[in-house]
Amino acid sequence: MADESTPPPTTREVATTQDGRDITRGWVTALELLRPEDEVLMRRGGGDLRIYEELKRDDQVAGTWGQRQDAVVQAEWYVEAGGERRQDKKAAEFLREQLQRINFDAKTKKMHYGIFYGYAVGECMWSRDGSRVVLDDIRVRNRRRFGFDGAGRLRLRTASSPMGELLPERKFWVYSAGADHDDDPYGLGLGHYLYWPVYFKRSEIRLWLIFLDKFGQPTACGKYPSNATEDEKRKLLDALNAIHTESGIIVPEGMDVELIEAARSGSADYSSLYDRMDRAITKIILGHTGGSESTPGKLGGEDMAEQVRADIIKADADVICESFNRSVARWLTEWNFPGAAVPRVWRTLEEPEDLNKLAERDTKISQLGFKPTLQYVRETYGEGWEPAPQQPGSAAPAFAEGEDKEVSEQLADNLESRAGEAVGAMIEPVRRLVEQSGSLEEVKRGLEEIFEDVPEDRFAEIMREAIAAAQLAGMYEVSEGGE
Q1: Are strands 132-141 and 119-129 parallel, antiparallel or unpaired?
Q2: At residue 445, what are phi and psi to the nearest 5 degrees?
Q3: Going by DSSP bridges, is the β-strand pair 256-260/219-223 parallel, antiparallel, or unpaired?
Q4: Average per-residue pLDDT in the chain?
């Protein structure tokens, strides 16, 4: 029985953003659209995400963002059943078929822009196939068309409803990312951090072009007498302007034309600023400043690829997959397989094993008596394998099924056999020494000399293999006993 002095849990929401309780926003009702908290977006773009769309025209943004997208999409996706029951597995197989039907990689790539803008919206196109609800398509919409109200609900902005139409439930796949709290459903995308580096880069290019124009060609200077008329001044100016486009000009007698070479001191290295902004863009998108001109999916320099995969790719893939699992996957399961555990969609980020090295390892382990099962061979090396036909006088196929001896006994027998040769090489010189020595002192000196040259490498190698095999044997027996 609970202690009466212990207060019960409070189940209602307390720190709501509605009705003026959020002092950072002011009064916001459930019918009003929330204002994004991205100050760059609000001050520089008036709340319109178009300013972030313009960032994609930058060559460095386009290249590095494309690498990040390709790295996420190239990771193979798979569907994991939510449980072990038959209906759980049927729900997972059904979801797998739906994702293959809509080209899930293409949808993921478009929904991945939620990382760039802060949020993404995909409309689910449902239909019926007999008694089941199926997913015909997911149409990723322009996020500029939507907003969130004071209750955090998605609304569609239209010409007739500038405050947004309330949308039906279980229709839109939505997620947000990047915000440091849950009070801002708009999230905070990479565009927020990319705006200033791209802005400075574009401004610097404009100044760089002016610099090249000024210092790449001398400035023409015309001199006219003090009593020159306005018509004569105009003719002289026309002549100066013609210098930029004509190979030869004429001027009236009495007027002089000179070319002034621009002189400067110090350094005006615009390229260094340009490169600095490119490095900032690369660091924001890829997480490092390694070379970005690499194979798509490798995320810059080869030496940084694995580290970035563990951070950025996994984070992006998890955000997208988790939001899908909590919405679309759950809806399909509840409609079509009531009571079944919801399957989960994930992406495999681990590099595939080198089969040559794996086969070499398996060969060494099998020599120690730990023989693979036929199921293991098929799961590791693919389908199409079966035990080789037994030749007359040959041993039984080298699979673990049907073995009478315990695995530990097999390992002990094999270790004794293989270690015997190495131990014999160590004992034989000692036996000869004892037979030929005349005193214990002579035996002692002889042993010191013998064991300085004893070949221990082979014996150590055998023991290492035996220990590895014993560990795998233990794992195998635990897995077999747990089924």
Answers
A1: antiparallel
A2: -65, -40
A3: antiparallel
A4: 78
- The DSSP string of 426-459 is HHHHHHHHHHH-SSHHHHHHHHHHHHHS---HHH
- DSSP category for residue 150: T
Tell which residue, 311, 336, 281, 436, has the closest CA to residue 127: 336
**In the 8-state DSSP scheme, what is residue 126?**
E
d(CA 2, CA 382): 57
| 316 φ/ψ sector (left φ>0, alpha ψ -120 to 50, else beta) | alpha
Tokens read off for 109: 């790539």
Spatial CB neighbours of 178, under 8 Å, sequence gap ≥ 6: 115, 118, 187, 188, 189, 190, 192
Measured over the CA atoms of residue 193, residue 197, residue 200 and residue 201, the dihedral's sign is negative
Q: Considering the entire predicted model, what is its pTM? A: 0.64
Question: Do the strands 256-260 and 146-148 form a parallel or antiparallel pair, or are they unpaired?
Answer: unpaired
Structure tokens given for 384:
């199409």
How far is it, in rounded angstroms, from Cα 253 to Cα 443?
121
Lookup: tokens for 42: 């609000």
pLDDT tens, position by position, 406-437: 555 565 566 555 555 555 665 667 667 666 76
DSSP 221-232: EEE--TT--HHH
